[in-house]
Design a protein that fits this description.
about 230 residues, alpha/beta, Rossmann fold, five-stranded parallel β-sheet, three-stranded antiparallel β-sheet, 7 helices, 10 strands, about 30% helix, globular
Length: about 230
């Protein structure tokens, strides 16, 4: 299957949006959410569409430009998703089998995420932080302290980055060992159905069709809860 470089808008939404109620409804959330990179967090294959070196495309560093002048950025709602899950105390990780791991990491280091206040409504942010504190989510306090800072995208992934050509089962074995979190407490977003083999470890995979959006995240969490009998 050949995929062309997506040209859909990738910049954050202009008006702050409310976080989905599922992050503050008091029911359990996955302890870790793991993302694929290509056609999941961003609309391109980093190992075939991107020609290094990279440089920032604008002062906000919300996009990158490569050697041939092509521009690259996250799918539109990804920055808000990273903030929202982090504020809920969920650990974030990456599992990517790209053949250009160094370039993938460089892209994550170059792309910056605006402060939460630029993307999310304050009332919904406060509700998520309060719910996370009540649930004893250990990472919520740190995320709350950083919510109004511009951050490199790579800094959101406190669960670790597994970026190399391999079966994603190996990626998740490494992530599980690093975090000390059972695979049953993980939710995985990926655009390729073949990676459902990771579910043999006990995790839940949610197949995304056109990049990560809040709707995909909500449906993924619902499926994770369903499998947990919640």
């Amino acid at each position: 299957m050949i995929r062309k470089l997506s040209k859909q808008p990738t910049l954050p939404l202009n008006d702050p949006a409310a976080l989905p109620p599922i992050l503050s409804d008091g029911l359990p959330l996955p302890r870790a959410v793991v993302f694929d990179l290509d056609y999941t967090l961003w609309p391109f294959w980093v190992d075939t569409h991107v020609y290094p070196p990279l440089r920032a495309a604008n002062a906000e560093r919300s996009a990158a430009v490569d050697k041939v002048g092509e521009s690259f950025a996250f799918y539109a709602q990804v920055p808000a998703v990273l903030h929202g899950l982090a504020l809920a105390g969920v650990k974030l990780g990456v599992a990517s089998r790209t053949h250009a791991p160094d370039l993938g990491r460089e892209m994550l280091k170059l792309l910056q995420v605006p402060p939460a206040s630029a993307l999310l409504e304050e009332a919904s942010v406060d509700a998520v932080i309060k719910a996370a504190a009540a649930a004893g989510q250990s990472g919520a306090g740190s995320a709350a302290n950083k919510k109004d800072k511009v951050r490199k995208a790579i800094d959101f992934f406190d669960a670790g980055l597994e970026i190399y050509p391999s079966s994603k089962i190996q990626h998740f074995k490494a992530l599980g060992k690093r975090m000390g979190i059972p695979h049953s407490e993980m939710l995985f977003f990926d655009d390729e159905s073949r990676n459902r083999d990771t579910e043999s470890l006990g995790l839940t995979m949610w197949l995304v069709r056109d990049g990560v959006t809040w709707n995909e995240v909500v449906e993924g969490i619902k499926e994770w809860r369903r499998r947990k009998g919640i």
